[in-house]
Each structure stands twice: as structure tokens, then as C-alpha cells.
Fold each of these.
Amino acid sequence: MTTPGPLVLVVEDDAHMRRFLRASLTAHGYRLVETTTGKDALAQATAYNPDLVLLDLGLPDMDGLVVTRSLREWSAVPIIVISARGQEQDKIDALDGGADDYLTKPFGTGELLARLRVALRHAERVGREPEPAIAVGDLRIDLAKREVFSGDVEVHLTPLEYKLFAILMKHAGKVLTHRQLLKEVWGPTYVDQTQYLRVYMVQLRHKLERDPARPRYLVTEPGVGYRLRS
Amino acid sequence: MSPGAGVPHPVAEMSARSIGYVAGAAVVAVATLVAWTLIGQQRLEDVVMIYMLGIVIVSMRFGYGPSLVATAVSILSFDFFFIPPYFELAVADVRHVVTFGVMFVVALVVSGLTKRVRDQADHARDVAVERERLAEEAHRARMQVETEQLRNALLSSVSHDLRTPLAVVTGAASTLLEESLEPAVRRELTDTILQEADRLNRLVQNLLDMTRLEAGALRVRKQWQSLEEIIGVALERVEKVLGDREVATSLPEDLPLVPLDSLLIEQVLVNLLENAAKYTPPKSPIRIAACVADAGVEIEVSDRGPGITAGQEALIFEKFHRARSDERGAGLGLTICRGIVVAHGGRIWAESREGGGASFRFTLPIEGEPPKLDAREGGEA
């Protein structure tokens, strides 16, 4: 008897959008609970305790950010927000407010499923022993020995470069906002100094990517942050 | 009276006229004085000239009425002071009456002539004013017509460019609903729907950008950004459109951070890359380069396609310009690029390349310096 797939709470007011999500997610083994308002979402989250919440930020009744924050008050459930292009600030606010990742409309099935997979994988790892080494494609980081490899070649990183790379690898596949990265790597007083981040990301790409101008792993999420693509 | 001033103030006008008459009389008095002191009663022909001069002055400066009055007063003064019996208005020699007559006629003619000149000048001024007003009205009307035309062009262009991919999507989707289709055909139709949706997405973005540009609502939020990063994002966005053609990037190692709005400059690069892909053969290479150039950076997107028709280098940036009539897309891409680059304080231009192809370049100014990075590379690492 196969274990039932993860339960996803879909908070989406557009009927056709819901139809697409339903079709795509059920085809890949997910179970769904659907709601159309923020208020309802909070109630359903309490009732069903889903494994993941898919939340459209353009809800008619409540600000998606408020829903995110309310959920975070009592739950660590992974939240993926859906927004439109040009609404970068909404996404940043949601991510800094506790959401785990985001999707920009219009998006395809591939992207949707990838985000879900990553979010669930990271949620599953919480509370477990942190892994001593992480590998993504050609890149490998050994957190115990503090070594970084691209293929078989060891790459030397400066302490801050290493710190930045490590946090990206630990959250492989997930987006990290400028603010989150700056806070983790440089400290809380540096959260507005995005130029640091840019310079160091450029440096990392030059050391780890075959074509730094067309990165395969160290991906820019425009207006929002960075992601180590898994 | 100022042109177009409406109904003149009656009292003001009256006093203006009175001044003319009074001044006219004063001029005659002055002429008499001058004639008396400088010439005396002996050379009458010279005295006549003085009075005539006075009348001409009055007619030129004060108008017809005052000049007629001045004429009469001049003749009387002439008679009184210079014709025997002196200090009497009687005339001893009849020949002097002829002199008076000639004086009067000449004075009348001169007054008449100057009046005509003044009238013509007034008329010409009124005509000029009227013409200017009409020209302004015509200009305004023309602007309105042009705006109408542009709006209509935009609407019909949007209508066509949205409807065409939608027609494809409708056609493909309705075909897919049919039962008996080969899997390969299904796949192809579904892929077509995806591609057309992608195209629609880009068109909508262009329309939104164009609307913001036109409304002056384009807000540029500059942050220190890496060009390499922005180029990377743009290349990712147009990956599908580029296909499997070769894209070479040439960026110097020490390229500085540039203050720019990342979303907007991404859009510029996306539009330029899309154009390059659209106008060149599917395997033709595209090149992106950047370099430091006086107080800023210069970015170039170039291809090996047909290049730009000579003389059209500036025209292609105009709204709705299309290089080919069968081309899809509203012809807004380059206009948007220009709007964004100009809003950043830069400039954009195009030229044909040696050896074939087109080269699009734009500059972005660098003002100031990014806040310095800490010298320390420390903290617990």
C-alpha cells in the first residue's frame, strides 16, 4: 500500500488557475484542499494541517503577506507564494515574512513541481542532523573539511565567499532574499548593502561556473534574491 | 490701443486724442519760435519749410486729426507772424494766399499719406496676430489628430498582435480536444500553444511598458548592479527564443558595478536579444559586449543578420516601426528600449556592422561610487 502523497492547501481565487493546479498536482500524486479566500485558508490550515501551502498573493479578501505571517505564528509549514511579474516587493515581503519560495505568473508545470519538491525536501530535513556534505550537479561542498569542489577540482574560496556559497548550498533549490543572505553572511547591520552581495556573487560565478554570464547553478532571481539551482 | 484689447476705455481714448491735438499745437508753436529766431521775416520760403516740417512730424506722430489742426494753426501763425501786416490775420499781398493754399494742400497730402502708412501698419499687425492664432489652432488640431491616429494605430496593432497568437491557441486547443490524434501531433500542437502563450506574455509586457512610458509613469529605481548578472538573467528569459544559436559574451574582468534599475535594463536586453533572434537566420550568432566608456558603460548587442537599411538607423526606434510588413510584434520593442535608456540618462543607437549584421549600442552613466566594501574579509569564516 503506497503512502498517500503530500497534502497541499491551494489558496487561489481564480477558477481556471485552480483547475490547472489541480490537474497538474494530482497527476503527480499530490492531494489537494482548495480554498478561495485568505480567511478560509487560515481555517483550513488549522483543520487539515497540510504538508505545504500554495498561496496566491492576489487574493480578494486578505493581503497574502498577512496570511503568511498568520500561518507562521503557529506553523512551520512550507509556503509557496504565487505572484505576478512586476510585483517584486510583494514577493520579497512574503519571503522575508516567512514564505519559503515563490512562483511568477505565468508559470509552467515544470517550475511548479520543482518548487514543491524543493520546499518539501527542505521541510523534511528540519530537525534532522545537518548533512556534512552537499552535492548539486558538479558542485560539492564538504562542510566538515570546509572544502569546495567543482567536478574533481578543488576551488579555493575566501572566507566570505565560502560562507555565501555554503548557505546557498544548504538551501539548494530554494530562493534566498538579498536581506536573508546579507544577514546570514555579513550580519544584521548589512541588510541594505546589496552591492556586497552582487560583487560576491560575481566572484563566486567566476570561480565556480563554466560561463559566468550564463550561470547554471548560481542563479539570479531578479529583484528578489538568489537561488542555487538544483 | 493694443491689438485684441477689446473695447477701449472711452476716457482714456479721449485724453489720448486730446494729447495729440495739444501736442500738435505745441509743435507749431515751437516751429514758429524756431523760424522767428533763426530765420526772421525775410526768407519766407525757409519759414514755410519749418512749418511743413512741423506738420509732417505731427502727422507721423499724432495722427490725421491733429495734423489737420496743426496745418490750420501753422497757416494762421505764418500769416500772423511772418506776413505783412504783421501781427494781424489780414493779408496784404494776394500772392501769399496762394502760398497758404499750397501749404494747405501739401500738408493735407502728407497727412493723408502718413495716415495711410499708419493704417497699413495697424492692419498688417492685426493680420499677423490673427494668422498666429490660426496657426496655433491648426497646430493643436493637428496634434489631436496625430494622437488619435497613434491611438488607433496602437489599438489596431494590439488587436492584430493579440488576436493572431490567440487564434493559434484556439485552433490548436480545439484540435487537441478531438479524440483521434497521433501522439506526435498532440505534442506538436501543445508545444505550439506554449510558444504562443510565451509570445503573448512578452507582448503584454511590452504594452505595459509602453503605456507606462507614455504616461510618464516609468519609475527608475537605481541600485548598484552587475552587468554580467543582468545579462545572465536576460539570456535566461529569452532562452527559448534564442534556440540553439551561439551567443558570445565579452565582458571585461574589471567591469564596475553600474547604478541601474535591474528589471528595466533586463527588459532592454530582452528586447534587443529578441529582435536579434527575430531578424536573423536561426543559427546566426549573437554577441553581447560591454566596456567602460567615458563616465559610464557601453553595452552592445550585435548580430550577423541582414543589418539595418541605410538611412533607417534612427527611424527604427520610432513607435510602430516594423522592418518588414509581415513582422509580428507591435514594433514597440526599440521604442521601449530608448525610453528606458533615456530615463537612465544614457543614449541608444544602431548601426550596421562591417561584414554584415546590426549592432545596437546603449550607454549607462555611472555617477558616484558604490559604498566601499569592508577591507576585512573576516568574521568567523
Note: Strands of chain B lie at 223-225, 247-250, 258-260, 286-293, 296-303, 348-352, 358-365.
Amino acid sequence: MHELSIAHSLLDLVIKNAKENDAKKIISIGVTVGKVSGILPHSLRFCFESVALHSLAEDAHLIIEEIPCRARCSDCGREYEVVDYYSLCSKCDSSNIEIVAGKELYLSQLEIE
Amino acid sequence: MTKVIQLKKKIKAVNDSFATKNRELLASSGVMAINLMSSPGSGKTTLIEKTIQLLSGQLNIGVIEGDIATTQDADRVLAAGASQVVQINTEGACHLDASMIGQAMMEINLNEISLLIIENVGNLVCPAGFHLGENYKVMIASLTEGADKPKKYPSMYLNSDILIVNKIDLSPHLTINSQDIIKEAKEVNPHLAVFNLSATTGEGVQDWLDWILGVSLP
């Protein structure tokens, strides 16, 4: 959802951090996208390539790391991977679960010259 | 010579930082804020009108209305007795964001209200992803929308604090009831607090009003 506006925000962050580190060229950009962040990696890639044209990030290689969705059961403490947003605890069938990973959306790394 | 810089910069940081500023301003003025979200036509504006009318004299309520176009909702809540109203017309954007709310808040005298209701653009997908600086995310599901929506639109249910099941007065005409929706919703988010009501007839509204008073008054 809104990959284009996310791509714009990502580009702003990339350029800002690249300039703060005196980059003359950006070789690669590492982005972490959680499985339930609402952002589809392939859509983000498509949009980013588009918005990065004519910028310092134009030729940078976009590396997207996807984080699976993990939940923790508040009743038995088990932590496990979730396929959908919702699931019952894989150990005790409780619905009292908390998402502990999978909502991430951040710029994780820049490789510059 | 190449250099690798490790970072952990949230991409939604800009919106989050506006949201934090909004929250701080609201807190310093002693104002509670709720972000009211739902599909178009679930009854957000009707519930706001009812809330304002029934709490008249007890609570000063400000409203920020978010719509793609028109001032119809702002006109309605003003007529219902809202203390202060600002209409945001997004002219195409499908959700409100924190910077829009920050700007709207500049037109409100926060010292004169205890509760700020933000009525988001009718949309069951996008508003869930954008913090506005609110204290509570409240979503409305009307009975007529069916019990399959929680699992089809999990992000909205997962990111909300409160679920209001509305239009319970239509129950006799439908094949599902409130419990059907609530069961599905709680499977997506067991932490949801639930209110069951009809904004039109007033049935069940008192519990909602009691909650509002409980969180808005010192």
C-alpha cells in the first residue's frame, strides 16, 4: 500500500544519509521490509527505480531483506512464524498472541563511494 | 574506496515525527484524541453527531473531518454542536496523515476542548498504517458489511484499539448478528475492546459515552 510515497520517503532518507557521509556514488541500498508491513517488495522496487531516476541513487542496487511475521503467545510463551496476520498459538491454540516481528520498514544499509 | 554504513532508519519516520509532535501538543493541552476509521458508510459521522448531542454540556468536543471532497461532514457535526470543527479535503489522498492533522490543529483552540475526534477518510485499508498522534484508534464495522471483513482486512483490525459494531438496529433484517463479527474480529486481534450499538437509534450508545467521559475528563 502506498509503495510510491514510501519510495519517495526512502529516496529522501537515502540521499540525506549519503550526503551526510560525503558519498559521491551510491552502490547499494539495503532495505528491511516485514512480511506484514503492508509493503510489497516488488512494488517498492518498481516504484523506487522510478523515483530514483536522475538522483544520486539512480544506479544503486536495491537489496530488500524480507522479515517473516513472528508471533508470541501470551499464554504459553511460544514464539513461532505466522503465515497470515492471525493464527492460533501453534502450541496451545490460544488466540492471545502478539506480533513480535514482521512490521519492520527501514533503511538498513548504504554502500557508498 | 567503498564504505558500508549500517543504519536503522524508519522509512515512515517523517509521518511518525509529525505524529509525535501532535501527540505532545494534545497532551500538553489536556486533550484526548481518537482516530475514527471505517469503510465509507459505516456510520462514523452519525456516531460523532450522536456523541456530541448526548454529551452536550458535559464535554467540549472538537472534530477534524477528513474527506476527499466537500464539507458535508463538517457541516453536520457543527450543526450537532461540536465546539470547533476543521474540514480537511485531501483532494485524492485516501487517508489522513500526521502532517495534515498538525496543520488542522493550528486552527483549533485546544485549550477549549477536552476531546478531539478525527474522522478519517472512509477506507478499510490505508488509514491503519498512518499514526496521527491519536491516543486511540477506533474502528467501526457496521452489521451490514458482513462478518468476513475482519479476516479480509486484517491490518485495520490488527492496528485498532477499539471496535464499534454499528447498525445493530438492522439485525432483524440480516442473516448475521454482532457476535458473528466480534468472533471474527477477535480472532484477528484478541485485544480489541468492543462496543455494540446503533448510532441512529441510540441503543448501546451509553457504554460508548461512558468510555469517552472516562478517558476525556481528568
Note: The radius of gyration of chain A is 17 Å.
Amino acid sequence: MPPEVPYGTLDLMVLKTLDTMGALHGYGIARRIEQVAQGSLALNQGTIYPALLRLEQKGWISSEWGASENNRRARFYSITRAGRKQLAAETDNWVRTMAIVNRLLEHER
Amino acid sequence: MTLRVLASRLQAAVSGAKRDRALDEEIETHLHLLMDQYVRQGLSPRDARFAARRAFGGVEQTREAYRDQRGLLFLEQFAQDVRFALRQLRGNTGFAITAILTLGLGIGVSAAMFNVVDAVLLRPLSYPDSERLVAVYEAVPSGVAPVNAAHFLEWQSNATVFDELALLNAVAMNLTDSGQPERLIGARVSPNLFPMLGATLQFGRAFTPEEDQVGRDRVIVLDDGLWRRRFGADPSIIGRMVTLNGDRYEVIGVLAPSFHFPSFEQLYSVPSTTPRPEFWKPFGLAEGERNPIGNFNYVSIGRLKRGVSVADATRDIDRLEVEIGRHLPQRLDLHGVVRPLHAQVVEQSRIGIELLFAAVVVVWAIGSLNLLNLWLVRSLARRNELAIREALGAGRGRLMRQVMVEAFTVTAFGAVAAVVVAYASVRSIVFLAPAALPRLDEIAFDARGWLYIAATAAGSALILGLVPARHATHVAVRRGTTEGRDVGQFRRFLVAAQVALTAISLVIAGLLLQSFLNLLAVDKGFVTRNMTVVELNLIGSRYDSLAARAAFLRALEERAAQLPGVSAAAVSNKAPLTGAGQSSSISLERTTVPPLERPAADVRPVSPQFFATWGIPLIAGRLFDPSDGNRPVAIVSEFTATHVWPNQNPIGQRFRFGLMPAAPLVEVIGVVRDMRNIQLDRAPSFAAYMPYWQRDSQVASLAVRTRTPSLSIASALRDVVRSLDPDLPLQSIRSMDDVVAQGTAPRRFQLNVVVLLAASALGLACLGLFGVLSYAVVQRRTEIGIRLALGAAPGSIQRLIARGALPLTFIGLALGLPAAVAAGYALRPLLFGLTPADPAILTGASVVIFAIGLAAAYVPARRAASLDPMTVLRCN
């Protein structure tokens, strides 16, 4: 069973996706995350919406209505400047945490 | 249900459905895109739809998680707002304390008064079905009168509108066992009264119909208060025998403390000072009381049948009364009066209570206007901050919400303070209020008080939140520090309103104060200086005849007159201003006046020394003398002489007391000056005096005048009484000054409260003016700086600022004085000796208001004059 996505990491992944890909709607974001994870992540795509709302409430992304590929109305999300700053900080954090954990694990052996 | 979910539901209720629908649309699009993807990957449309749903996950869960997230924000923002509000208050403690105190005192005291108004005036009486309870009276040509027992019996047999009808009257008895002899006030009642009022007993039983006969009626029921006070709350009291007026009575019951009964002062249709009964006995109507003419002495309470109106009942009783009147030996014009019991009990106090409530509300309003003003100034000062935040993207809704949360936070603290203040105030009111206040024992701080506080706090929060929010958030950043013209005017309008309200309070306080002074200064007709009064009840086997009582009184007066320091002593039935005495009609020898239209005189058995002792001058004829013996003689008052024998010499005229033609003729031997013998605010009326050895009275009073104010006279008098009869209880020994003070106590209480409130109003209004004028100085700094630089004298600057106070005081007075006069007219029953539009008081109030206007302007004016023009102009 592929691992579930933890709460905070989803936010990070969404921000990174929007940073890389520009404006996307909910389906687009979910699809991109799945693609990048190459199937090793099980994501109920619906869970992305509360996360998007949270990110918008915090001011890290903004949204606009537009037309999707199949000509339906959809909200398009893009990262804000505050969001970019947050992304940089979190990425930094993540990398540093990983380094510490790696060193600990090495030591064990 | 977690707080988050609750908050999200709240948020959904407040703003929500639009965003939810938007989400639904997004989900629809997402599902379709997924479907298209699976179709592209080769699935059939049906399989693609299932696959899309599977990949998406639960739609409903998504919706719920979304809503939860929304609610979370709401909660977070609310918590943020509250924290911000608390920080603001902490940073500005002066303002915070002012606001919380103003709210706490204003809401708290008005809540206490509301409790009083509610408990006394609004709530129905504490009996089951109390709207059906009525008091019944008789109407005679000279007015409304208490009930005659024989007529009552007629009503009981023949009235069709009552379920139950009961008769009662007040009775005074001396309790003489175990401990100090004590005079108690009780009630004689028909046995059906307790069931009619739903009275519950904590011990024993009520009366049976068999006990309602003379001889079988030696049973009593005690009031809870008397049981605790006199009998030590003894649970085995039932069956105990007590001695009342020399007779043995069995205690058969004790009433529950939840039973409230009005005082007789409220039940009798004529002025009375009889308090609440402390014990109850069966009525036991005596033969002598069945006289259908005269003895209009009793109170009747009844319960109407369901569906019967007071008008129906009045018609029914009226019908019976007319019949009774027609069949009497002398035809009388009788009618019936039926009043709802609640109205009868509270009507007299209504105006006074409403006045106090209105006064409290006025002071609260003035204080609140101050608070509103302060609040406005504060939010104006923060206008720039809010404008910047708005420009940076904070929604206007968010900002307004934050202002509202601030307002609610402050009022929440104020409400807590208000609860404490209200509770303390109610306790104080109950403690300090005159005992004559109806339903005093039912006043307590209860659920309705809580509700009042919650409602007014919420209302205040809304006003505090909305008014400044409207003014503060509607600005562009470039407006700068100058006060928006509309806000300044609004604030000045608030202050003018304060001045108007203050004017009303001052005028009312002035009217009441002057009335009180008028009352105290009124010519009583007798002298009260250095007078001490002893009140006694001559009941028991030693005083079973007029001769026995007369002998006692003679001895009492002699011994009292010989006490050192005493310059005069006299006995009578009652001293002036201690309540009504005996009332008898004056029937001329050959009169054609119908019986009930004959004047009713206050008749007093007195000693020959009475008039000299009280300083009442003799105008014509002579005083009593022991040599008059048993030949019926009387002295009448001036009023009586001029009204009963107009243009004639009353000396030597003869008349009868009462309505019976067989009564002995009495000769008038003297005329004395009028005196206000019952109440200070009632003009003298018909009065007559007889020698105490000719006219009987159970109650007696000894009055002594000492040469100098004497504190020891009371114990000396007690010794005198005890030397004549050790078992005789003294009802009271008081100085005449105390008697007057007690009689005017309700009025004084009311006056004190109103004056206190008016003084508070004055202080608050002064503060309000001060605030506005100070701010005006700050506003006009530039202008003042220029004037000073151009050579204006500091004095002229001061005058300029002080003049700023004038328009406000003028407008305030223009609004307030007419309103005050109108209020004065509404309060006319409380006034004495003046009209509501008394020019002296109106002028006085205006002068005071101008004075506080100047006082409020003093400091700002000085501050303005001492501005350094260079500093002001430079930093502009």
C-alpha cells in the first residue's frame, strides 16, 4: 500500500507544483503531484481542496476563475510572493531535517 | 461536536452558501477532467466515471473537510481579534477602566432598578390566578370607603360574580407571655382567605369554618417572620397557647416564608399606616359589628369567576349596594367599587418607583454618551492605522468585525462588573427602602435581572461597535488628522444631549427638594420642639371600662407632669402624625343632610392639658374642665366651625357624633386652631375633641414637653408607666422629631436618591463637556497659534474656547428645560407647594448648567492660552 500523504507535506508539494508550473486548477495540481511521485503516492484527489483553501487563507496562493480544458468553469491557483518565500523557507527546513536524519541513520549502522 | 466544527457551522450560517456552491462547481469540473483522462486511457465512459470517482475519493468528505477548514479560519480570526482587543485595552488602561466602570455602573444600577420595577409593578401578585383577585369597596357620596360587615354578608349571599369573597381587617393585640410584652398587628380573616390566596403553611393548618364564630375563634396562625423572631423558630409550636389581650389563643399553624401579604396601608381605600399583619385569626364577626349603618371598617378581597371582568363585578356589586341602600332605615346612596388587587396594592407607589427608574436611566444614558464619545475619539485616532490596513488588503468586513469584537470584549467585562453591581445594589435597595414600599419582600436579583444585563450589554456592544466603525473605516488615507466634520458634529450633538438630560435631572431634583422643604416648613398647627410621645394599648382585664381607662390616664398624666425637666404633659388617644384615630360623622341636632353626606371628623379623646401642651391656641370659648363631668362636651377645630356652622357662633351649638338619631347630643364649648393631625401633606379637615373620660379609646398616647432636649426622658417615662402597670407594653417611645422624620421617610429616601443621581449626572455631563472642549483645543491648534502669533491676548483665547461651550449649553437647555417641565407635570402627585414650571428652579438649573459649562471649559481654555505659537506653527 503506497504511503499516505502527511498533512504538512501536501502544502509543500502544492506550493512547489504551482511554483514550477504556474497557474493550475485543482485537477492539474493533483495530476502533476501524482506524475512526479510516479505512482508511489496514493492521493485521494479530493483532499487537495481543503489544502488549497488553507493555503489561500494563509495568503500563500491566490485564485481566479477561468475555463478548463473541457470548457468548464474552474478555479486557477497561483503562488503569491509570500507563498514563494514560504516555499523557500520550508524547502530549506526540509533539506536540513533530511540531512540530520540521514546522519543519525548512518551513525546507527 | 468540536469547537472547530461548531465554528464552521457558524461561519457557514453567516457567509457560507456561496463558497460551498463554488466548491461544488470545482469538484464537478475536476471529476469531468478525470473522466476525460480515463476515457483517453481507453476505459468505457461508464468505467471511466467509476474510476474518476475512485481517484477523487469521497465527495462528501471533501466538502466537509473544506467546511471545517473554513470554520477554522473563522475561529482563528475571532481568537486573534479577541487577543488584539485585550492588548488594546491593556495598552490604554485609563480608557479601559473608564469604559468598564461606566458600563458596569450604568447597566448594573439600572438592572437593579429594573428588578424593583419588575418585582413591584410588573409581575402579577404571588398568588395562583392572581389576575382574578380583586378588592371590593363601597362608594359613598363623600368618596370610596372601606366595607361594612353587614353589607359584606349580603354580597356573600347574593353576588353572582365571585368564586370566593373574604372579609378581613387589621387588629392590634398585646402579646404578654414569655418576654417583653409586645404590641402586634395581626389580621382577622374569613376562613376562605388562605385557600383563596393559595397560602401554604409550613406547620399546622389553617382555619375551619366552625372557628369563624365568636367564642370558637381563639386560634391563631403565625407569620414566618413572627415565628422566627418571637418564638425562636420552634418546630413544636403547634398547640402552644399564647396570651393575646389577656385571652388564651392556640397556635394552630405557621405560614411558609413564601407567602407574601400586603400591608393594610395598601389595602384600605383611605390613608392608613397599618403595617403587614404578623399573625392571623378567624374573623369571628361580633353582633355589634353587624350594624348596616356605620362601621365602614373592613377590607374585602374576592376571586372572580373565570371569564368575569372587573366591569361585570362592579355592576353586580353595584346592583346589590343600591338595593341595600334602599332598604336601610335611612335611605343611603350606596355604590360598589371593584379594583384588581394588584393595582390596589401597587398604584400608590407607582409614580415614585417609575421616577427612580427614569432617574437611573437618565444617569446611565449620560454616562453612556460619555463612553460613546470617548470611544469615537479613540477610533478616530486609530483611523490612520485602519486606513493603512485596508489599503494593504484587509477586507473592510474583516476590519469592521475586529471593531465589533473590541466592542464586545469591553462590554463583556462591563457586563461582569454589572452583575456584581446589580447584586449589591438590589441588596442595598432592599435594606434602605422605606418599609412602606409594596412587595418589598419580593424584590431580589433574579433571572430577569440577568436577562436585562445580557440584553443591554449586547445592545451597548452593538452601538459601540457600529457607530465608530461606520465613521472610522470609511476614509481614504489622505484625509490626515483633521476630524471629519460630520463626526465632530455628531460628538457635539451627543454632548448637547447630555446637557439636556442633566437639565432634566437638575430640575426634577430641585422640584423634589423644594417640595420636601415646603413640607417640613408647613405650618403644622402644633409645636414639636422637645416633645416626646409614648404610645400604649390599654387592653386587658384591668382596662375593661371607660372609667378604668380614664383613671389610668389621669394618673399617668399627673405622674408624667411631675417628672423633673417636664414643662407640660397631656394624654390623648393618638399624638398628631401617628396615624388616623377615630372617625365619626357630625350630625346636627335637626339635620336634613343625608347620613352619608355628613362630614366625617377625626375625633380625639384628649385631656384639658392637650392644647396647651401641643401649643394649639384656643380661638373661642373655653377648654375642658373636670367639672364638665359626664355632660357631653366637645371642642371643634376652626375648619369644622366654619364649615358646619358657617356665619354662626359655634359655641353652644349641639350635635351628635355618628349617624344614629338616638346618640346623645354634644355641646360645643370651644374652638381651637386647625392642625395637620394625620399627615403633613394633607390640609386640615374636620376635627373634634372630647374629654378622655367621656370618649373611649383602646389606644392611648402620652405627650410630654421637656424644657431642654432630654435623652433620659424616655426611660423616666417607661418607669412611670411601669409604676402604674408593670404588664403594660409600650408600643413605642419616640421624640416628635422622630415621628416627623419617620412620616417623611419615604419622601426623604426618594429625594436622596434623586439628588444623588442628579449630582452624578452633573459630574458626568461636566466630564463630557470637558472632553469635547479639550479635543476642540487640539483641533484648533493651528488657528490658536496664528492668533497668538498675531498678538491676541491670552485672555481672548480663553474666552474664545469658553465660548465654544455656549452653543452646546444653550441647545442642551433648549431641549432639556421643556422636557423637564413636562416631566414635572407627570410627577405632580409627588410635588408639594409648587408648580412644575417653578421659575426659580428652572432658573437655578440653568445657572448651574452654565456654571458647569464654564468649569468644563476652564482647563482647556487655559491650555489653549498657554500654547506656544512657535511650537504649534512649526510642527504643523
Note: The interface with chain A takes residues 22-23, 25-30, 32-34, 36-37, 55-59, 61-62, 65-66, 68-70, 73 of chain B (CB under 8 Å).
